[in-house]
Amino acid sequence: MRSLEIQRNERILWGDPMVVMVAIALAGLGLINVYASTGVHAGSAFLSRQATGLALGLVVTLIVTRLPLVWMERLVWVGVVALCILLLLTLLSPLGVMKNGARRSMNLGAFFLMPAELAKPALLLWTAYFFSLPRSWTRQDALTFAAGVILPLGLIVGTKDLGTPVVLAAGLFTVWFLSGAPWRYMVPTLGVGAGIVWVLIATAGHRLRYVRAWMDPYCSARPAGGDPVVHRACLDETNALRQSYQAIADGGLFGTPLGGGQGPLHVMEGHNDFIGALVAEQFGLLGLIGVAVLFTILLIRGLRIAARAPSRFAGLVVSGAASLIFIQAAVHLAVVSGTIPPKGLTLPLVSAGNSSMLATACLIGFILNIARHQTESVTGEEPR
Hints:
Elements: H1 2-14, H2 17-42, H3 45-65, H4 69-92, E1 96-99, E2 102-107, E3 112-113, H5 115-131, H6 139-158, H7 163-178, H8 183-202, H9 205-215, H10 228-251, H11 263-266, H12 275-307, H13 312-336, H14 354-378
Antiparallel strand pairs: 1-2, 2-3
Helix pairs in contact: 1-14, 2-3, 2-12, 3-14, 4-5, 4-6, 5-6, 5-7, 5-13, 5-14, 7-8, 7-13, 9-10, 10-12, 12-13, 13-14
C-alpha cells in the first residue's frame, strides 16, 4: 500500500514518470550531439543555445502541465488566431527573415522564432476540440474547422516549408482517425491531400531538386564524363544526403569514439536537419535504434494515457501530441537513412533549434497534463 501511495503521489506531481525519463534521455542526447556536431566550428556557442532552449522548454512544460483542462479548450481560438498573425508577420512584415530564399522565421531581437513550429500545439488543440464536440457537426462547424486548418497550413506552405505541413496533416489525420470518424470521409480527404502535396512538389523547382537528389544521390545519371557543370551541380545538390549516408556507415554497429567521427566536418545541417546521421555515427546503428525505441515508448505511453483520459477532448489531445512527436521523429530518421526525400525537419528534443524545442516541450506538457488529470480522477480527486 505504501508503494502504491508513493506511485500515486509521483504521478500527480510528474504526470507520467516514464514520459519524463524518455524526454530527459532525448534532451541529454541532444546536448551531446549538438556539441559534437558544432564544437569543432563554433566552440560552445550552439551548446549554450541548446541549453537555453532546454531551460525555456522546461518552463513551458511545467506551465502546460499545470494548466487546467478547461483552459486548454478556451485557448483553442486564441492559439489559431495568434498563429495566423505570426505567420502573416513572418511573410509580410520586416520582422520576417529571408534565408536561403525562404521567409520562415521572425527576428524578435533576443531570438529567432519559427511560427510554423507553434502550429503543432495550436492546430492540435483546434482539431481535438472540434472532434470532441458532443453533437453532430453543423455546416458552420465544418467550415470553421476547415478554415482554421487550411489557412495556417497554406501560410506555412507560403514560407516554402512543405515538410512541416505534411507532418502536421499526418498528425491531425491521426486525431481524426482516433476520433472514430467514418472511412467514407477520411479516404477522399487523404486522396485530396496526397494530390495537393504532389502538385506542390511538381510545381516547385527546389522541391523537385530534393526528389532528384534522393533518387540519384551519387549522380550516376549525370556522370563526371558528361557535362562537368551539370555533374558539379549534381554533387552540390546531393552532398547532404551522401554525407549523411557516409556518417551512418562510419558509425557501424557500435559507433565511433565520442567526437572522433568525421561527420561534424562534412554533414550539412548536422546539428538539426541531419542530426540523426551524427547520432548513428557517434553511437552506431544500435544507438539509432535506441533513439527510435525511445520515441516508440513515448507514443505507446501517450496512447495508454489517452485511453484513460478524463474526457474525449483530453484523450484526443494526448494521443495527437504523442503521434505528432513520433511522426516527426520517424520522418527525420527516414530522411537521414534515405528512405524518403529530404524534408528539412528536426529530430524532436535532439536537434538544435529553440522554436522546435518549445513546440515539443508544449506537446510533452500536454501529455503530462492529461496523465496528471487522469491520475487524479482515478484516485478520487477532482481534476483541476
